[in-house]
Design goal:
mainly beta
């Protein structure tokens, strides 16, 4: 069973970034995106080749994920 971290969509973490390649799901409140549930562990950073990041990592290349 995988463990997940929960992040607000406004948090500047890799889990909420458009470059995050790991597994994540979006939780909604009042039909608006509220939380991102991201699988724990490492994922490749699409913006920085060769860099491994966790869901809680922050970096200067952060860009908010596309709104659903």
């Amino acid at each position: 069973m995988s463990s997940y971290g929960v992040y607000k969509v406004t948090d500047k973490k890799c889990a909420t970034c458009s470059f995050w390649s790991g597994k994540r799901t979006i939780a909604f409140r009042s039909n608006k995106p509220f939380n991102v549930n991201a699988e724990a562990g490492n994922a490749d950073c699409i913006a920085q080749k060769g860099k491994k990041a966790t869901a809680a990592t922050t970096c200067l290349k952060w860009q908010q994920w596309e709104k659903v």
